[in-house]
Amino acid sequence: MFRADVQGGSSAMPTSGGTAFTAGVGGQGGMGQVYDMGQGLVGGQAVAGIQKQMKWKLFFFAGAMITFATGFISVLYWMIHFTWAPATFMSEIFLLIFGMLMIVLDFPIPHPNMTLVAVRDHCYKFLLFMTRFMGRGMWYLFLATMVFSALWDTNIDWFWGAAFSSYLVVLGTAALVQGWWISTKLETVRRMIIDTRRPPTDWIAPGQPGLNKEQFKAVIAKTSGDPEMFSLDELDYVMNALSFTPSNDGIVSLEEFAYWLQPGPMLMV
User: Fold this and answer.
1) b/e string for 192-228 if b means 16 or more Cβ within 10 A?
2) E-strand spans in 126-269?
3) CA distances from 162 to 62, 155, 177, 178 (A)
4) Where are the domains of the chain?
5) DSSP code for 239
6) What does the DSSP assignment read for 157-187?
7) What is the pLDDT, as a whole number, of residue 138?
8) Tens place of pLDDT per residue across the chain (269 aa)
9) CB 23, CB 203: distance < 8 Å
10) Which domain of life does the UniProt lineage start with (predicted)?
11) Cα(35)–Cα(178) distance, rounded to whole angstroms?
12) Would you call 226 helix, strand, or coil by DSSP?
């Protein structure tokens, strides 16, 4: 079991008997906080979108700009070259709205103001799939079809229709691969924990709110024998996927942990 009492700076190590852990993560008396107040999703997801590495943020932001630009150009084109095609025009309106939404979620600024953070948290509340790599991947592939239809099928611009949609296809595929890679590793850990035949209460002590990131990493290390199986960023994505809500406190609760260990399909990250 994991104890919530902490020795500042100590690492997660098994005690004698191998059944209890003290997963210290520093901080002032009590579990160190992974969650930064005001950032919303664990690991600053509301601040960084889904990926905290700058290269990913820029890739996602570029995809948002492409979507927005395509929607704006298409709407403007059909307003100037008016044709009775309400379905086409509504499709371009939605594409423009999707582009604006993506810009808000993926704008690459390190410390956005609290209003933008609140807007992002609210968006994630209704678009939970945007906190998953697998969800992002499917979303960008869908947007690629809309961009292709808006520019290529309508003969607005064949070249940019092909270029923009190709970029979104590559981006969506990359996100799917990243999500699948993390998901399969997590599924391996889940099966190892299930094979121990230990109930969830053996991993989380009674009265403890749950496992923070360091404690969850210690569970993975003890079960798999590989303390570096997940990077710290990957653990953020995993804990967001395990959470019942889009905005959480950086803790995997007993209910969430027990639900994850129930028989069922692989959890998609």
Assistant:
1) ebeeeeeebeebbeeebebbbbbbbbbbbbbbbeeee
2) none
3) 16, 11, 22, 24
4) 46-175
5) H
6) -HHHHHHHHHHHHHHHHHHHHHHHHHHHHHH
7) 94
8) 443 333 333 333 333 344 444 333 333 333 333 333 334 444 444 444 455 555 678 899 999 999 999 999 999 988 888 888 788 889 999 999 999 988 888 887 766 778 777 777 777 778 878 878 898 999 999 999 999 999 998 888 899 999 999 999 999 999 999 999 999 999 999 999 999 898 888 888 778 888 888 889 999 998 888 888 888 888 888 888 888 776 556 788 888 999 999 988 899 88
9) no
10) Eukaryota
11) 24
12) coil
Structure tokens, 255 = 């209910």
Residues 104/120, Cβ–Cβ less than 8 Å: yes
Buried b (16+ CB within 10 A) or exposed e, 237-269: bbbbbbbeebbbebbbbbebbeebbeeeeebbb
**Rounded CA gap, 45 and 248, in Å?**
10
176 near 138, Cβ under 8 Å? yes
**How far apart (Å, rounded) are the C-alpha atoms in residues 241 and 186?**
11
Q: Is 28 exposed, middle or buried (0-12, 13-18, 19+ CB in 10 A)?
A: exposed
The residue behind tokens 């999500």 is 179
* CB 29 within 8 Å of CB 216: no
Query: Encoding tokens for residue 107?
Result: 């704008």
Q: Tell me which amino acid residue 8 is.
A: G
Which residue type is seen at 107?
A: F
Task: Give DSSP secondary structure letters for 87-117.
Answer: HHHHHHHHHHHHHHHHHHHH---SS--HHHH
* Per-residue pLDDT at 52: 53
